[in-house]
Design brief:
The protein is built from eight helices and twelve strands. With 249 residues, it is an alpha/beta fold. It is elongated and about 60 Å long.
């Protein structure tokens, strides 16, 4: 899929002086790419029938290219796809982020396999797995992620319960130890994995103007909160979305 992202427009504008692109050459253009183009006077034009513009770099071409515009006939082993036919080094920050998300998915599934049959936690973990996969998909395609909903809780609800556990679960914040058991320890590992992915996302999307993809960063933040909520739920015996306890302090 040929996706026009902000970093591509940035490289074309600053390093090649490109001031026009054809929308028809791209299957999807991110809102960040459109915003950058608008701010810097890069036109996004529909291609007229039979018209060619030699000043506009086509999205589809034989072989591969780097974000800097270098053409490659073959894919080197140390490089991988950022999107479309654009290759980057496997140590690129966004590739590192994808590796973090891949590890998180694997660990979620691994914990599910260790649960006893019929354990309701497996279903809650399945929700986090779907969100993790959605984050990865939206990172690759550049599409915005939908509003985070887990366990019937909105993004704000997840944040509220993770910050005020005594009001919702009757217990204070917890520090995990061996006595909490393998399941809570496993959930804690997932929480740290999600936090590591969030930090990787901040690094991957940092630009001279700030940090992009706040939607993905927030989703990862809420995902780590969700794992903490599952820890609190497991330890207290209350369901993840329990209503506020009367008289809680």
């Amino acid at each position: 899929m040929a996706v026009l992202q902000e970093d591509t427009v940035r490289q074309l504008y600053f390093k090649q002086g490109v001031t026009g692109l054809r929308e028809a050459d791209w299957e999807y253009i991110t809102k960040e790419a459109r915003a950058f183009a608008r701010e810097h006077g890069v036109t996004l034009e529909p291609a007229a029938c039979g018209e060619e513009n030699t000043d506009i770099r086509p999205a589809r071409q034989k072989g591969f290219v780097t974000p800097e515009g270098e053409s490659l006939a073959e894919k080197p082993e140390h490089m991988t796809h950022l999107y479309g036919n654009v290759l980057v080094s496997k140590e690129h920050p966004r590739i590192f982020l994808r590796g973090r998300l891949d590890s998180l998915e694997a660990d979620i599934v691994a914990l599910q396999t260790r649960l006893e049959r019929g354990d309701s936690l497996s279903g809650f973990l399945e929700e986090t797995l779907r969100l993790c996969r959605s984050i990865l998909s939206c990172e690759v395609t550049g599409k915005p992620i939908e509003e985070t909903m887990l366990f019937g809780l909105t993004s704000a609800g997840l944040r509220e319960r993770s910050q005020h556990p005594r009001q919702y679960y009757g217990i204070g914040h917890i520090l995990v130890n061996a006595g909490d058991g393998a399941v809570i320890a496993g959930l804690n590992c997932l929480r740290t994995r999600a936090r590591e992915a969030e930090l990787s996302a901040v690094t991957a999307f940092r630009t001279p103007e700030g940090v992009g993809r706040p939607d993905l960063i927030q989703a990862l933040n809420r995902l780590s909160s969700a794992f903490y909520i599952l820890m609190l739920s497991r330890k207290s015996g209350f369901p993840p979305a329990v209503e506020q306890r009367k008289g809680g302090s």
